[in-house]
Amino acid sequence: MRARHILGPLALCAAGCADPIRSDLLQSLGEEQAGLDAGPLHRAGQPCLACHGGEGDGQMVFSVAGTIYQQPDGAVPLANAIVHMADSAGDRYQSATNCAGNFFIQEKDYAPVYPAWVWIEFGGVFVPMNSPIFREGSCATCHAGEASDVSVAGVYFSELDLDYPSAGCP
Amino acid sequence: MRGASLFLTLLSIGGCAGYDDLHALRMPERSGFEVVGDVLHNHCGSLDCHGTPVRALRVYGGNGMRVDGIPGQGATTDAEYDATFESIVLFEPEVLHGVVLSGGEEPERLTMVQKGRGVQVHKGGVAMALGSEADACVLSWLASDIDDEACDDGAELQPPSQPEP
Q1: Residue of A nearest to B64 (CA)
Q2: What CATH number matches the domain at A42-156, 2.60.40, 3.40.91, 1.10.3470, 1.10.10?
Q3: pTM to 2 decimal places
Q4: How far apart are CA A13 and CA A16, in angstroms?
């Protein structure tokens, strides 16, 4: 009898206590791209921490992760760029983008104390982010889709059409 | 009688009134607010914090949520200072009235001050520490005596040095 009293509310909670905002976000991300399994190359341009923030299905937990493109149109990912971070505690960390333009920092390796500052390095050139990050680990939460009054376009290295080395994914 | 007037004013605020309907309440000055707005923008108004329409307290500005424009492109406009000002004075108007009426005494009555100092649970942690220039700037505004120097210093967020290649 006592067990039923406890399990009943727990079962109800399991069915209805999910975060509706997060649920909506996950639903909006859709299925995996055909022919591309879950892994370091998947879901470029999406908010990584929706699944990899410690509460989702992603196996690894990220503190910061995102996708970097060559230009503002987000058409071509920027591979082999280095993402430098420096936080308010004075700690620094760096990670590199893969062929999909994705980079990720595992929380167990580096959990920045906010605000934190970011630079993208490519070909010896450093491009700083205009403003610090205050709490959001998914780049795509603020840098997604078309630029608008509440969203910056995807993270990009330069507005110029530079001669990048070819680095497509196999 | 004054209490009844205040009560009626607060009732009208409950109906989504705007700043113009707050005439019966003492509010901090909009004049000179720009320097305060810059502090709030730099400490609170990034797109991942209060620079988003999903927050109850919204902060607008050049690198955050825009009234009309793209974040990161162009300086904060008068319309954005207006929008931030209105967001703040409409957040807890009756408490703000009391703080301003008392010359800025006990500013910690305001949720904004408590959260900024990290005294109340705040996802963004301590955004404007007690005794910091940013905190002093906001308090001076609440006391109707804006400390421009504190605001100028408080608006600065010095980034760490650029990494070495």
Answers
A1: A150
A2: 2.60.40
A3: 0.82
A4: 5
